[in-house]
Design goal:
Elements lengths: L1 H7 L7 H20 L2 H4 L1 H25 L11 H4 L48
Keywords: Membrane, Transmembrane, Transmembrane helix
């Protein structure tokens, strides 16, 4: 019976026992996931802590809402009534020029001047006979 099972789970190109080993490993991993409680991963503890923080925040929001005064039924004054004109700044005697919108143009490139004549040697062809 074990040989029939081993031949049924044999992976092609591998020895007969590898399929049985793979099946046993998969069964052990599946069994471990079924038997392992979620508290081992720490999920339950974290969820409890988050729930406690949420309860505290909700309680704090309720107390703050009770302390707030009732909103008045009247309308808010327009913004123009609350506006205060900023103080005038004294102007300078010599106003600065407005900023340039483009950078200054550099002068054209100047080529260095060479001495009179060419710098490479002259080749006279054919050479005159000596």
């Amino acid at each position: 019976m074990l040989q029939d099972l081993a031949s049924a789970v044999t992976l092609p190109g591998l020895p007969e026992w590898t399929g049985l080993v793979a099946l046993v490993v998969l069964l052990l991993v599946g069994l471990a996931y079924l038997l392992m409680p979620f508290a081992v991963f720490g999920v339950k503890g974290r969820l409890d802590a988050i729930e406690a923080q949420l309860d505290e925040i909700q309680t704090e929001i309720r107390t703050l809402a009770l302390r707030l005064p009732e909103p008045s039924r009247g309308r808010r004054p327009p913004v123009e009534e609350d506006w205060a004109e900023p103080p005038m700044v004294a102007r300078r005697a010599d106003p600065a020029p407005p900023p340039r919108s483009a950078p200054p143009v550099p002068p054209p490139a100047a080529w260095p001047e060479r001495g009179a004549g060419r710098s490479e040697p002259r080749v006279e062809w054919p050479r005159p006979p000596r």
